[in-house]
Every structure is written in structure tokens, then in C-alpha cells.
């Protein structure tokens, strides 16, 4: 099968299109013919081995343990391993895989997949397992957004941000999105009541204080975010993808936030999204009902996967970049 693989850590130039063997499903796993895969910041981190802490905790010290890149996918089940009973050959699914999704075939655990709604395209479904999941858990679980609250979302024009705006709006919040001027119309179109152009205004420049801030861009210090937060507000850090800091990337803020919460009325939370078939099913229902609509910036052929990752690192993506296979 064709796949995007790498032998060493490095820039997108290390990604190569090769013919490799097709993986086989193990206990509780299925083999999926991949139809679409998502380009996410996590792919960049696995490609570069940055932050270096990743290498120490088990992702591979000199090279990635999993050589095929990609995590999120959508596709069609073609075979089931021993003990796999939830899905049958022919079922259309989406979720995450263990063998790399930038490939014609991938192996996934059944409890990391959900059925793809017929009304959702493969490209749209591939955008759900990472970006939409992160937004859902940030809005629903971490921030617990409620009707009538004032919510500020940074990075509102990106993959996670466009979902977060839609989800917070659906819960009845008044949403302000932070983005560059090129993405302002998009952010309004997915539900933001107002937009802050970060090239012209600081998030606390108008004196407003927000009940909830969901920080996806990861580009602002905690002090700036706290100035825009209400005295009893909730700050949720989902971002932190600082591509210019190889040792810990943006993890310093995530480590400091819970400690600072001990000394202030503001609740400062950092989290990493957890894979969940139950949440994938919830996202499928939201997408099927029209409550959320994935924003696809651009689709790429498998051979052009490296360019999709370059766009992420450059911060140019509007919504999601999807690789079609």
C-alpha cells in the first residue's frame, strides 16, 4: 500500500511517499480502507519530535516509533480482527488509528471509532476526531459553557476554533472570536457575534471581561489572558503549539495555569483531549443535525501531505486541511 512515512525526525521534507506492507488487525481491531485523513498540529509534533519531552516519554527517542504519519481518519472497514464485533466489513467509520492514517489502509481499535453518518462526507468526518473532539471537550467539559455567558475564543479561524465557535454558540453563549482580518468573515459565518482582529487590537483593549476564554492559538501569555477574564471566569488552555520552542513548546503555560488557580478566583485549566468513541458518536450526531459543520480549508492528495503540514506550521490554515486517499 502507499503511505507517507518518515525514518528520522525533521521538517516536512522527511516525509516520503512509499510502498509498504498492509497492516493486520489484532484483537478488538479493524482494518480500515482510508478515504480521508486530517492534518493536525499533532502530526507536526510527531514529525519533528518537538517538544523533545515527547521523545523521552515514549514516542521514540531518535525516530518515531510509528513511521507512518497521521492519526485521524475516515474510511470503510474491510476486515475485523479477533473479538471485533462492533463493526463489519462495509461499515463507514471515522476516528483515530494506531498505524498512521496517511496511508491507503490503517488499523484502528473499535473503541476509537464511530459510525460515519450518511449525510457527512468522508472529508468532513476526518475533521471530527481531533479538532472537533478538542473543541467539544473544551466547551462542554472544561469550560462548561452556559447560555448567556460571554465567551472569547482565540484562534477562532482554525480547525479547533471554528468548531469551538459553533459549539459555544449552540449552547447559547455570546461568542467573540479572535483571528486575523482574512478569517473574520468566516468566524462570523460560523456563529461569532463579534470578532477581534488581533493585528489591530489586544483582547483586553476594549475593556470587556469574559466569563470564559478558550485559548486555542497559544500565542498569548497567561497575564494577558487573565486581564481579559472576569474575576470568577474560566480560562481553558487547549493551545500551546509554539513551533519555535523545541524543548517544551507551549507546555510552560499549561504547567503554570493549575498552580496559579490556587491563588486566584479565576479558574485556569489546561487539558489534552482524550480519545472517546462516545464523544465521536456525539460529534456524529451534531454533524448530522447540522449543529456543527466542518470547515474544510483545502484538500490534498496523499502525495502532497507534506504541504498540508507546512501550512499548519505557517499558521495559514483556515479551518481544516484534509488529505484524500
UniProtKB/TrEMBL annotation:
GO molecular function, one term: oxidoreductase activity
Domain of life: Bacteria
Species of origin: Trebonia kvetii
Residues covered by the Enoyl reductase (ER) domain: 10-323
Protein's name in the database: NAD(P)-dependent alcohol dehydrogenase
Pfam families named among the record's database cross-references: ADH_N, ADH_zinc_N_2
UniProt xrefs under Gene3D superfamilies: Medium-chain alcohol dehydrogenases, catalytic domain, NAD(P)-binding Rossmann-like Domain
Amino acid at each position: 500500500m502507499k503511505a507517507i512515512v518518515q525514518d528520522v525526525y525533521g521538517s516536512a521534507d522527511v516525509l516520503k511517499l512509499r510502498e509498504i506492507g498492509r497492516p493486520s488487525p489484532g484483537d478488538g481491531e479493524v482494518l480500515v480502507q482510508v478515504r480521508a485523513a486530517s492534518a493536525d498540529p499533532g502530526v507536526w509534533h510527531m514529525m519533528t519530535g518537538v517538544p523533545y519531552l515527547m521523545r523521552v516519554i515514549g514516542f521514540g527517542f531518535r525516530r518515531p516509533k510509528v513511521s507512518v504519519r497521521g492519526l485521524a481518519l475516515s474510511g470503510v472497514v474491510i476486515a475485523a480482527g479477533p473479538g471485533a464485533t462492533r463493526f463489519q466489513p462495509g461499515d463507514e467509520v471515522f476516528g483515530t488509528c494506531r498505524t498512521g492514517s496517511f496511508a491507503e489502509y490503517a488499523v484502528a481499535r473499535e473503541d476509537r471509532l464511530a459510525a460515519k453518518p450518511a449525510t457527512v462526507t468522508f472529508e468532513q468526518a476526518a475533521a471530527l476526531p481531533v479538532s472537533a473532539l478538542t473543541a467539544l471537550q473544551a466547551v462542554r467539559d472544561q469550560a462548561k459553557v452556559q447560555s448567556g455567558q460571554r465567551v472569547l475564543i482565540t484562534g477562532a479561524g482554525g480547525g479547533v476554533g471554528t468548531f469551538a465557535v459553533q459549539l459555544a454558540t449552540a449552547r447559547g453563549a455570546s461568542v467573540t472570536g479572535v483571528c486575523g482580518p482574512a478569517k473574520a468573515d468566516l468566524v462570523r459565518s460560523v456563529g461569532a457575534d463579534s470578532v477581534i482582529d488581533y493585528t489591530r487590537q489586544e483582547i483586553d483593549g476594549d475593556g470587556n471581561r469574559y466569563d470564559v476564554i478558550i485559548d486555542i492559538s497559544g500565542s498569548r501569555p497567561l497575564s494577558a489572558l487573565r486581564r481579559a477574564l472576569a474575576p470568577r471566569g474560566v480560562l481553558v488552555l487547549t493551545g500551546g503549539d509554539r513551533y519555535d520552542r523545541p524543548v517544551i513548546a507551549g507546555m510552560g503555560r499549561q504547567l503554570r495555569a493549575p498552580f496559579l488557580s490556587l491563588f486566584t478566583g479565576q479558574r485556569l485549566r489546561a487539558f489534552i483531549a482524550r480519545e472517546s468513541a462516545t464523544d465521536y458518536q456525539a460529534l456524529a450526531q451534531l454533524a448530522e443535525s447540522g449543529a456543527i459543520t466542518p470547515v474544510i480549508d483545502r484538500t490534498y492528495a496523499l502525495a502532497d501531505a507534506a504541504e498540508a503540514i507546512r501550512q499548519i506550521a505557517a499558521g495559514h490554515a483556515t479551518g481544516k486541511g484534509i488529505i484524500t486517499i
